[in-house]
Design a protein that fits this description.
By secondary structure, this protein is of the alpha/beta class. Helix content is 37%, strand content 24%. The structure holds adenosine-5'-triphosphate. This is ABC transporter ATP-binding protein.
Length: 252
């Protein structure tokens, strides 16, 4: 199809008269990795929540391949093809990664929670579950309780759960937040592996990660788009340097 897969126009979110997102236009091209960056409080998380239905916009529209999403529930939006990962899922401590992914796959088909205890019903998803776990590097940890997984591996599992929905657009909320250098490198590799023709939108503070992954970058400030373009252009834009890149958080 022509044009962006995800398009926001005039998005506004007001909290008691304060505009956290203030008239944002966003075009996310199909198959691209698009980063949302900006200083603390710029409105990145709020925008993310508007795109995924976790918040209802005060005004404006969000379209997925032309279809209006504004006002739909997060579940409906996920089923239509916009799924998010990181900082949302609470994993079940005693269930294994394999069981988590089987349940996510079952939920997608509508088989859902009614069958959640039936090994036979879930067994039909085991092949696909193994593929997804392999994809995110968890094949060797498929059968341990989720509670025993290291932090980076829990996040890899959350990514597998989002991928189980086979989304058109995958949204990643600060995928490297709280990680040490090794886990950051591993996560960058992981996102590269799973994007595979998929469209990815990510909120990310670590500019090295943005530089390695993003085809396009939107810089937000005070709820508005300050600049938009390829990373190489954005990083030289004096407005962006002044508003954001000079800040030590972004220089990490
Ligand atoms: N539920 C809410 N009620 C009132 N104000 C809110 C609410 N959510 C966010 N805000 C305000 O909206 C502004 C944007 O917040 P948001 O969390 O979207 O920024 P951000 O760019 O994601 O910041 P950070 O990088 O710190 O996560 C902030 O001033 C914040 O205090």
């Amino acid at each position: 199809m022509d044009g962006p897969v995800l398009r926001a126009r005039g998005l506004v979110k007001e909290f008691r008269g304060f505009r956290a997102v203030d008239g944002v236009d966003l075009d996310v091209a199909e198959g691209s990795v698009h980063a949302l960056v900006g200083p603390n409080g710029a409105g990145k998380t709020t925008l993310f929540n508007l795109l995924t239905g976790f918040l209802r916009p005060s005004a404006g529209s969000v379209r997925l391949e032309g279809r209006e999403l504004a006002g739909l529930s997060p579940e409906r939006i996920a089923r239509l093809g916009v799924a998010r990962s990181f900082q949302i899922t609470s994993l079940f401590a005693e269930l294994t990664p394999r069981q988590h992914v089987e349940l996510a796959l079952a939920g997608r088909t509508g088989l859902g929670w009614r069958f959640w205890k039936s090994d036979r019903a879930l067994g039909r998803f085991s092949g696909r579950a193994d593929e997804l776990l392999e994809r995110v590097g968890l094949a060797d940890h498929a059968h341990v309780p989720a509670a025993s997984l290291a932090y980076g591996r829990k996040r890899a599992l959350e990514l597998a759960l989002a991928l189980a929905l086979d989304p058109k657009v995958l949204l990643l909320d600060e995928p490297t937040a709280g990680m040490g250098v090794e886990d950051v490198d591993r996560t960058v590799d992981l996102v590269r592996r799973v994007r595979d023709g998929r469209t990815v939108v990510l909120v990310e503070h670590n500019m090295n990660v943005v530089a390695s992954l993003a085809d396009r970058v939107t810089v937000l400030q005070h709820g508005r788009v300050l600049a938009e373009g390829p990373y190489a252009e954005i990083r030289r834009d004096p407005r962006v340097v002044a508003a954001y890149l000079g800040d030590s958080d972004a220089a990490r």
